[in-house]
Structure formats: structure tokens, C-alpha cells
């Protein structure tokens, strides 16, 4: 059996009469004070699965394209997913568990867990929406206690990664489509997105930041910082543990 990875959506409750606020979080350089895929590729290289010098060189080239706003995301996804093809599924799961403990947990932004908890305490629906593919994004979402994950799909055949992305690329404008489709599958009106908040560090997320009612720039890149200042968007840092005050 072949197809894309469809198990990345946790259903929302269908019994909510008055929908609470929807709070969306970017992952890399927002909840995580690092890039998930860079950490993962370095981890695989340290364990002898990849050539570290070559991978670092290629990753730096892709990241430069990302920062400059010219990333070919479909091609980058193939680069991300290729290493998963040569490792048996059970070994991958064991590696991911160790990766989460040794690499991801130490890089959770210090203020992230308190911010997520503050939104949960107010009854908000919290979701991670990330370009990172589900296999790598899932442990980060668990570490910050967010059960709803909207992520790029990875194609699977007979339970194994093919090295190719699935149909949904959750990047740029694709993040809006992914969130809308997620809400539709959950049986929730898409206008929940109208009043949502979105926390992100990246100018690549401008489509979704402009779509929601409450955009928040988190440790923003230079372009997003400039835009946030021009538009009077809130700017916060999660790189330390701030006192959390929500409206």
C-alpha cells in the first residue's frame, strides 16, 4: 500500500458550542531555539549515517536560500527526507527517541512551555503549524505539550519513507491551506482562523501572519522585525523565560 503520511492530524472536539481561540505556533526558531532538520542531520552524521562535512555544507546552502526568501521547498523536502530511506523503520524510531532526548529537549526555547501553558490555561486550542515534516516535528510538539500538529507530509510506501514529500507542503501560502484543511477535517468552521493568533520568527510565514487577527513576531529575522515594527505587531522573545501576560 502506498500513499502520503496522513496520520499527522489530531481531531478537535466536535462538542464545542462556542469555539475558543485558535493559537498557532511555528516550530523552528520559535518554540525550538534551533532548526530541527539541522539538528537531525548532524545527529545522523554523529552516528555514522551521513558524511558530516558534506551535509553541513549542503544544509548551509539551503538555509541561505530560506533566509533570502528563495527556497525551493519541494527540493529541500527531498533533501530532508532522503536520509530516512536507508534506515529501517524500527531503527529510525529508536534514533528519534534518542534525538528527542539529547538534541531537541535542550533546544526548546526557555519561554516556550510557559507560553503554551498560559494559552492552555485560558482554554485556547493550541497547534503547531510547521514546514518541518511530521516525523521530526512530532517529538517537539510533545516536548512543549501541544497535541495538535499540522506539518508537511512525507510519502510512505508499506510503512517506509520513499524520500519524497506528500501532497501537503506546509510552507509559505501552504500553511494557510494546511490549517484550513485541518479545521475542515476536524469539523470546525474555518472562520476560527479569522480570530487566531500565530507566533513565528520568519518572514517566510508572512502569508499566515497576515491571515490571522493576532500575528506575533518571536525572535524575528531582520525582515520580519522590520515589518512587525512598521505594522505595530507585537514582538516577543522566547529565548529567556519572560513573564507571560495574555490579553
Would you mind describing this structure in some detail?
The protein is α/β, with parallel strands linked by helices. It has one domain: 3-Layer(aba) Sandwich (Rossmann fold). 43% of the residues lie in helices and 17% in strands. It has helices at 36-46, 52-67, 73-85, 89-104, 112-121, 134-143, 173-185, 206-211, 222-231; strands at residues 2-4, 22-25, 125-133, 148-152, 154-157, 160-165, 197-200, 214-218, 235-236. The longest helix has 16 residues, at 52-67. Mean pLDDT is 88; it is low at 1-11.
Key phrases:
247 residues; Rossmann fold; six-stranded parallel β-sheet; disordered N terminus
CATH class: Alpha Beta
- The domain tally reads 1
* Structural class computed from helices and strand pairing: alpha/beta
In total, how many beta strands?
A: 9
- Determine the N-to-C terminus distance: 48 Å
List the helices and strands and how they pair.
Layout: E1 2-4, E2 22-25, H1 36-46, H2 52-67, H3 73-85, H4 89-104, H5 112-121, E3 125-133, H6 134-143, E4 148-152, E5 154-157, E6 160-165, H7 173-185, E7 197-200, H8 206-211, E8 214-218, H9 222-231, E9 235-236
Parallel strand pairs: 2-3, 2-7, 3-4, 7-8, 8-9
Antiparallel strand pairs: 1-5, 5-6
Amino acid at each position: 500500500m502506498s500513499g502520503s503520511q496522513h496520520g499527522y492530524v489530531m481531531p478537535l472536539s466536535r462538542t464545542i458550542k462556542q469555539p475558543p481561540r485558535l493559537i498557532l505556533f511555528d516550530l523552528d526558531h520559535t518554540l525550538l531555539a534551533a532548526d530541527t532538520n539541522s539538528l537531525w542531520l548532524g545527529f545522523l552524521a554523529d552516528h555514522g549515517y551521513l558524511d558530516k562535512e558534506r551535509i553541513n555544507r549542503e544544509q548551509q546552502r539551503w538555509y541561505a536560500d530560506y533566509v533570502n526568501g528563495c527556497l525551493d521547498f519541494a527540493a529541500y523536502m527531498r533533501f530532508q527526507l532522503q536520509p530516512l530511506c536507508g534506515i529501517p523503520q524500527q531503527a529510525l524510531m529508536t534514533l528519534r527517541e534518542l534525538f528527542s532526548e539529547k538534541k531537541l529537549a535542550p533546544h526548546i526555547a526557555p519561554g516556550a512551555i510557559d507560553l503554551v501553558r498560559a494559552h492552555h490555561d485560558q482554554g485556547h486550542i493550541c497547534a503547531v503549524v510547521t514546514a518541518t515534516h511530521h516525523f521530526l516535528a512530532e517529538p517537539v510538539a510533545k516536548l512543549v505539550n501541544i497535541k495538535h500538529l499540522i506539518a508537511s507530509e512525507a510519502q510512505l510506501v508499506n510503512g517506509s519513507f520513499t524520500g519524497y514529500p506528500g501532497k501537503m507542503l506546509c510552507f509559505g501560502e501552504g500553511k494557510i491551506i494546511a490549517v484550513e484543511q485541518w479545521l475542515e477535517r476536524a469539523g470546525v468552521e474555518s472562520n476560527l482562523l479569522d480570530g487566531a493568533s500565530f507566533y513565528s520568527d520568519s518572514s517566510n510565514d508572512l502569508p499566515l501572519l497576515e491571515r490571522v487577527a493576532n500575528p506575533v513576531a518571536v525572535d524575528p529575522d531582520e525582515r520580519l522585525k522590520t515589518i512587525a515594527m512598521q505594522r505595530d505587531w507585537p514582538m516577543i522573545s522566547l529565548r529567556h523565560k519572560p513573564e507571560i501576560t495574555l490579553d
